[in-house]
Amino acid sequence: MEDEKVTEKENVTIAGHDEYKEHHEPLVRMVKRDTVSRERAIAVRAAAIVSALVVGGILILFMGHNPIFVYGDMVNGSLGSALVLRETARMAIPLLITGMGIALAFKMRFWNIGAEGQIIAGATAASYFALFHHQNMPSPVLLMVMFAAAVVAGGIWGMIPAVFKAKWNTNETLFTLMLNYIALEGIRYLQYGPWRDPGMMGFPVISMFNISARLPRVFGVHVGWIIALVLVALVYIYMKKSKQGYEITVVGESIQTARYAGINVKLVFLRTMFISGAIAGITGFVTVAGANFTISEGVTGGVGFTAITVAWLAKLNPAAMIAISVFLAILQKGSGTIQTIYNIPESAAQLLIGLILFFMLGCEFFLNFKLVFKNSKKEVTE
Amino acid sequence: MEIGTDSVIKLHNISKSFGTVQANKDVSFELNKGEILALLGENGSGKTTLMNMLSGIYYPDSGAIYAGGTEVIIRSPKDSFDLGIGMIHQHFKLVDVLTAAENIILGLKGSAFINRKRLAKEIREISEKYGFSLDPNKKIYDMSVSEKQKVEIVKVLYRGADVLILDEPTAVLTPQEADILFDMLRKMKEDGKAIIIITHKLNEVLSLSDRVCILRKGELVGELQTKDATIQSLTEGMVGRAVNLEIMRDSGALGDERINVSDLTCLNEDGLKALDAVSFGLRAGEILGVAGIAGSGQKELCESLTGLYPIESGSIKFIEDGHTSELTGFSPTEIAKKGVHLAFVPEDRLGMGLVAGLDMVENIMLKSYHNDRGFLIDRKKPKETAEKLIKSLEIVTPGVSTPVRRLSGGNVQKVLLGREIDSKPSVLIVAYPVRGLDINSSYTIYNLLNDERKEGVAVLFVGEDLDVLLELCDRIMVLCSGRISGIVDAKTATKEELGLLMTEQ
Amino acid sequence: MVGGFDFTNFFFMAVIAATPLLFATLGEILTEKSGSLNLGVEGMMFMGAAAGIAASYFYETAAGSGASGIVSALLAVLIGFLAGAFGGFIYSLLTVTLRANQNVTGLALTIFGIGAGNLIGELLGIRAGGFTTVSDSTKSVFSGISIPFLSDIPVIGRLFFSYNFMVYLAVATAVLLIVLLNKTRVGLNLRGVGENPATADAVGINVTKYKYIAASVGGGICGLGGVYISMATVGGNAGTWIDNCIAGRGWIAVALVIFAAWRPSRAIIGALLFGGLSALWLYFDPWLQTFLPNASIPQQIYNVLPFIATILVLIFTSIRQSKELSQPKACGTNYFREER
Fold first, then answer.
1. How many CA atoms lie within 13 A of B194 on its CB side?
2. Rounded CA separation A236/A245 (Å)
3. With an 8 Å Cβ cutoff, is C244 touching chain A?
4. Any A CB within 8 A of C337 CB
5. Who is most buried in B257, B264, B494, C283, counting CB within 10 A?
6. pLDDT at position B144, please?
7. Which chain B residues have a beta carbon less than 8 Å from that of C325?
8. How many domains does the structure of chain A reveal?
């Protein structure tokens, strides 16, 4: 009623301009939120994941399957028995470790998407000792040497782009990525050339590690899971409580400010990327010594990319990464199951991860902004 | 059309808020053809926000805008252009890598392909009409500040604007350049244009405008004919009470020379001299002002003194208690290790002096954390300092753990200056410390600097408001294209003298 | 033949290898000119590649024996373009409207695109019982053209008038982009948006619209690069889905944008150079063997050359920064008008 009156009045005074006004007044405007409650944040993010799963479900429907059954079998296939549970844990370990390495770099706003290459570098260095020096030392020493070699190799591979970033501000996103391909061709070269096992007839494969180069198991899963959890604690303390972690934060927020504060920015770049690469190198070590007992061109299994998702979805928080990496491991393990049952290709898992990322990225908007609609404005005008 | 035919723009009860901040409240006024209206108010009084609603950048929460007697909705800058309104923002909105001509036609409708020849001719015609010249094919990044301003003005005129809004147009100009601008504006007024200038400088209001509207805390508190206004009445309107705008110059006895700079030369990114053989002394208990048009080497001077900018040649010496240390070529950390206490409040507060996303405690420890023993960081001490500063400087913040980017400009500056002064420096370098601050905060800053001077600290004050420099400083050093064009006694110098030095080649 | 090095055929193969790179580079240039750094090129190429092959496959299945090769090829191109454009549209939706981080959104798009591309390709394979392949008549449309007279000129004909139609489409796209960016109002406005969106906004340019259109059309052009790989790649694989067929070429394109200094004309040269590197293995070993009979360079060394070249490009361009030849300034940051 009130509204009508107003419109009438306007019609009288400024005839002909009503349509113009109706047409031009913005329907909805965005206003920045000051703060968001923890509950709301969790609720919005949970809603995002659910929405992604719903969209994924619709796609499954298009493929001619019942999404509820498919999702159910994914969970069942990844958590349903002790056997698959161990398998899922084994898949979560490299994601978790690598995610932490990436988080350190991302905290510094150093877009390290080269974890694949750093994993390969670490795995290759560890494999070198496992393949050619296992007879020279007892198992614990050998494993320590392999670990150290992986750390150093991964660290150096991670540090190369940082050297150029520090000196000339060279774009690190593409640099780290190119190093992935170079590392991949490197391991291919070894696999098809010098390291090829002549005993395997025509197959280009590298021979299995000696038993002394294999990681022991605890609760049926190789000790990589203990290494991962120890790393979670260490990385948490490093990021939040240490002087070096503080420096990473400042450099990430503003290089200008870091220089102003007397922080040696170049050193921080090199040091952090060494650590970031070294942690990815540990993933390589754990994978070859704990899971595969050999090395091949497929050693990473795409972990270096998926771990970017882990780091980002966990908001770079090491503790949250435990949950995220398990969640993604369920998706990946589950996608293997549904391939056997429903003949849905395994790449469906990657598509689903992509969808979840889209929704998580999009939902941040609703945490940072609120929408103000035209109607709420009208009341003010009265 | 009951409104007088001379009225081109009328604002009626305009309100706008951002979150909990009320930027404008029930503002109403009119602008007539052929007049220059001054919109006066101190920083943060809502002048720019109000004008941004005329130019379509913001949309009012409530109220109405009339153009030529009919109510209009200005939802976007395009709507604003269509109504013949053109705004020249304080921070020029130009695309650096494009030419003047390209910037001028940016966003305009017309033939699909650009006719550059005709465009150049049209631009020349407009500039000649108002008595200045402009090269249409010059790239913006090659231009001086006043040239860029001319591009902005032509841009607006080319679009056929009858209403020009200029936001703090003289902030970056020398007094002489400002006079030229004012002549141009007067010519436009005679040509029938209506002009609003946003300013907080009283003498500009008095010398240029016909009428003045005063804003305070987002509300219109006064509207009067310029001929009836005085400095006193305008100040009272602007601040809300009678204030003495004179800054106390608390000069005591000058101490010995503390910093000696000789033949300092620095190069910029393009290998040109940003500082060219600069030599001066800075004494204990002195405020040495630095004046000059923007980009004359102020930034490089501050940063080379603090070890942040590479030095090509020359030397910087620090002298205390008869002991001389060489600062040339050392990093900030190395300088600090020599026991030299330099404090620096940079121009870019949130981009350099502070970390915008971190809280006050984490910002306080920015320069002291590396003194912590061991591997881990100590938060207790900086937290105490933060709490102390909140009390002593009356910093308004929800708490020590609020990111500093959430604080208002004045409070951000208090955090920064507070941290620097708390480090008990013997040399304090401040760059544009009151930029964007309201009068109260500005005076808090002036008082703090005066206190430091009394303590015997050597203060280097880089400023832009010549009146403030003249009132606050002991001496003023003028930079022009990286060279010192003169060092004058602030008690006897005049603004015109400084203006000439600023442009002297 | 230049001293045992078969230059004519090498150049031909270089052009063939350069074309998908050129498409992707042009698409990304258009996107970045609007101030959006879309790292999802690889993903959009996957989407284009799979959608293109799917379009052909479904058309041929539906039309049966009456299927026309030309219609099938055009459908592949159109649907591949739309798939890439859809990727660009998702990117815009997230970064422009929902203001998500550009870097991460690009990576997410890559992950999504690789997943979607491989999934579609594999599903088609399952459907076709084994592997998908399109009919010979479609394949022939994607093979080299033959222009009477011109194609028959010795050497010149082979060097310039014997490629498949997508090669010429790529060059035409480059020329169109050159004209658009340098001569037209739309191009000028687009550059304004990419350099300084606040300014563009203040002069009444619809920043959102420009960014959406640039990223979507740019994504579509990247998608064409994908179509080229799945449909026209010379060798036995044309018209057949191969898992992970894009194999990093999207990322090389992102680097080529830097190499090209955001100029379509330079993109042609850059793509040709990189195409040459990847075609080198076919011709270098034989040439080497003419005077070192037993010499052979491992395949992996050749494979790694484009990636090393990319790194060298990155380093070189970062050392000599220039005002003119640099990334549009707004790239990487989102624009929000009411920010204060």
1. 18
2. 9
3. no
4. no
5. B264
6. 86
7. none
8. 2
- A55 and A122, same structural domain? no
ipTM of the complex: 0.91
For C304, left (φ over 0), alpha (ψ -120 to 50), or beta?
alpha
Backbone phi, psi, residue C286, to 5°: -55, -40
Long-range contacts of A296-299 (CB under 8 A, 24+ apart): A296/A187, A296/A191, A296/A205, A296/A206, A297/A184, A297/A187, A297/A188, A297/A191, A299/A119, A299/A120, A299/A123, A299/A187
Same-domain status, B234 and B265: no
In a domain, B246, yes or no: no
**Which of A30, A181, A305 faces C338 most closely, judged by CB atoms?**
A30
Whether B274 and B210 map to the same domain: the answer is no
Work out whether strand B7-18 and strand B62-67 pair parallel, antiparallel, or are unpaired. Answer: antiparallel
Question: What's phi and psi for B7, nearest 5 deg?
Answer: -75, 125
Domain around A354: 36-60+344-368
For the full predicted model, state whether its pTM sits above 0.90.
Answer: no
**What is the count of residue pairs from B and C with beta carbons less than 8 Å apart?**
79
Confidence grade of residue B145 (pLDDT, cut at 50, 70, 90) = confident
A219 close contact with C: CB closer than 8 A: no
Residues B276 and B207 in one domain: no
Whether A259 maps to a domain, the answer reads yes
Give CA separation, C108 vs B299, C27, C39, C97, C338, in Å.
40, 18, 9, 17, 27
The answer on A363 and A322 residing in a single domain is: no
The residues that bridge with B477 in the sheet, in sequence order, are B290, B487
The answer to whether B242 touches B447, Cβ cutoff 8 Å, is no
Q: Same domain for B336 and B372?
A: no
Residues B260 and B379 in one domain: no
State both tokens at B27: 């503002």
Sign of CA dihedral A98, A100, A101, A107: positive
Stretch 316-375 of chain A: residues touching chain C, C-beta under 8 Å:
343, 345, 347-355, 357-358, 361-362, 364-365, 368-369
A174–C251 CB contact, under 8 Å:
yes
Residues 308-327 of C with CB under 8 A from A: 308, 310-311, 314-315, 318-319
CB contact under 8 A, B112 and C185: yes
- Residue A380 domain-assigned? no
Contact indicator for B103, B95 with CB cutoff of 8 Å: yes
Domain at C7-319: CATH code: 1.10.3470
Tell me how far apart the alpha carbons of residues C335 and C194 are, in angstroms, rounded to a whole number. 10
Residue range of the domain that includes B67: 7-239
Contact C104 A185 (CB under 8 A): no
* Interval B419-459: pLDDT, tens: 999 999 999 999 999 988 877 788 889 989 999 999 999 99
Identify residue A266 by its one-letter amino acid code: K
Residues B410, B337 within the same domain: no
- Domain regions of chain C by residue span: 7-319
The tokens for B396 are: 């308004």
Q: Is the pLDDT of residue C323 over 80?
A: no
- Does the beta-carbon distance from C200 to B57 stay under 8 Å? no
- Do B60 and B193 fall into the same domain? yes
